[in-house]
Design brief:
alpha/beta; 9-stranded mixed β-sheet; 3-stranded mixed β-sheet; 12 strands; globular; binds 2-acetamido-2-deoxy-beta-D-glucopyranose
């Protein structure tokens, strides 16, 4: 009878399943209880975590080193002086003084000699973050600013700075709030063949008292240095400023709108504030001809979300935390990506605000006063354009309803 054979087969399968389940339960019971029936903690006898897989790219390797050093668990183990096997690659730290030429670089980066000069310059001094200040403004924040405007500039850009002072960067009381403006400068090195502008710079410092200058070579790849040195300056000289707007010297900022936005923030929102024109899901460009080209031998991976460096707005409190965490992030040659990396380490994501137009606005709107009133920031504008736009912002008669 075919039917009876089938029943027997089903019965056998059920029995085997039952036995299997019993065995499983027995195993798990034994696993959790020793003979006396009390709970037993299983201690692994071998290392149970993965040895980190070392990246081949130089920046990533350096970052893995910092991650290891700043890992709180590792720190606890190291300070409890138990014997722990440190990976060999941690020893290989380069020169004792981080501001000396890093002799490891040419040997550790296979295509070092064929990299563009700016990479060679960057990599050799990547670990150095301390440069002397040549010009400081020790008392500029004595009256706690509501808004600190921080402008990345270059020595020869006298006209841009002056246009900013006469328009959106006018320091003093704006919309009943105290605004302070500082310009960040590096130095002009003889290798870059700059004419001598020191006398004029000295005159500008005496006249306006709003320049900060450090003694490093002011290049595109050193903008990250400008960022880190500013954060250090801020934590020492201006830690009580409530908000910071940091931008290029060719952006136009609608300071009144910015203040309005800041006044409307809730307390929780204000603490972690970081807004701008956010770029998500970006990766390094691999085309040698592009300004933002990054070779594989230097960096691999994706970029965290970051706010375009043309200009972004954040809280002073967050700036202090950024300064702290920046010590744990290896300098990266693109400054806004670097700030995104620091935010990520803090567990924060920059917030998109549609009023930050770091890629400009449509051509047909560029002469529309009311459009400009509704913006926070727009890139790029010449000094003359700034002077033309500013009256649109402050004109009380202009009806934009
Ligand atoms: C790293 O340091 C440890 C002890 O501090 C030493 O035993 C080991 O040989 C070193 N490795 C290298 C590559 O220098
Ligand atoms: C100006 O700001 C101060 C505090 O910063 C406030 O007490 C005062 O009421 C404000 N005045 C106006 C007109 O908003
Ligand atoms: C950055 O500045 C330092 C100090 O002046 C210099 O040694 C280095 O070459 C500069 N880096 C770049 C990429 O210009
Ligand atoms: C910066 O870090 C130090 C030690 O890591 C900590 O004591 C301090 O509170 C931190 N400051 C901020 C603003 O996070």
């Amino acid at each position: 009878m075919p039917g009876a054979g089938r029943k027997v087969r089903i019965f056998c399968v059920m029995m085997m399943l039952n036995i299997f389940i019993c065995v499983l339960m027995g195993v798990s019971w034994n696993f959790r209880h020793d003979k006396s029936g009390s709970q037993k903690v299983e201690t692994p006898t071998k290392r149970f975590w993965h040895q980190p897989v070392l990246s081949e790219s130089f920046w990533n390797k350096e970052q893995q080193r910092l991650d290891f050093i700043y890992n709180p668990n590792v720190n606890a183990v190291l300070s409890s002086d138990s014997l722990i096997e440190l990976p060999d690659w941690l020893n290989d730290t380069g020169p004792f003084n981080p501001c000396e030429r890093d002799f490891r670089v040419p040997t550790q980066i296979p295509d070092y000699n064929s990299l563009p000069q700016r990479f060679q310059d960057f990599l050799l001094y990547m670990r150095c973050r301390t440069y002397p200040m040549l010009i400081n403004q020790l008392h500029i924040c004595d009256e706690k600013p509501f808004l600190l405007l921080v402008v990345k500039s270059l020595i020869p850009h006298f006209d841009r700075r002056q246009a900013i002072r006469e328009t959106w960067g006018r320091a003093g009381i704006v919309a009943n709030r105290s605004v302070v403006t500082v310009f960040l400068l590096g130095n002009a090195m003889s290798v870059d063949h700059f004419p001598d502008l020191l006398g004029m710079l000295g005159h500008e410092v005496a006249l306006h008292k709003d320049l900060l200058q450090w003694d490093y070579r002011d290049t595109f790849f050193n903008l990250t240095l400008k960022e880190v040195l500013f954060l250090e300056w801020f934590s020492q000289n201006c830690p009580h400023a409530q908000y910071i707007l940091k931008g290029d010297d060719d952006v136009f900022v609608n300071t009144l709108r910015v203040i309005e936005l800041l006044e409307g923030l809730s307390e929780t929102k204000a603490k972690d504030l970081f807004i701008g024109d956010v770029i998500s899901n970006a990766s390094p460009h691999r085309d040698q001809k592009l300004k933002y080209f990054i070779p594989e031998s230097v960096f691999e991976g994706h970029y965290p979300p970051y706010a375009g460096g043309g200009g972004y707005l954040y809280s002073g409190e967050l700036a202090l935390r950024l300064y702290n965490v920046s010590q744990q992030v290896v300098l990266y040659p693109i400054d806004d990506v670097y700030t995104g990396m620091c935010l990520k380490k803090l567990g924060l994501v920059p917030e998109v605000h549609s009023g930050f137009k770091t890629f400009d606005i449509e051509e047909k709107h560029r002469h529309n006063p009311c459009i400009h009133r509704s913006l926070m920031l727009v890139h790029s504008r010449t000094p003359q354009e700034m002077l033309a736009i500013w009256p649109w912002i402050i004109h009380p008669e202009l009806d934009c309803q």
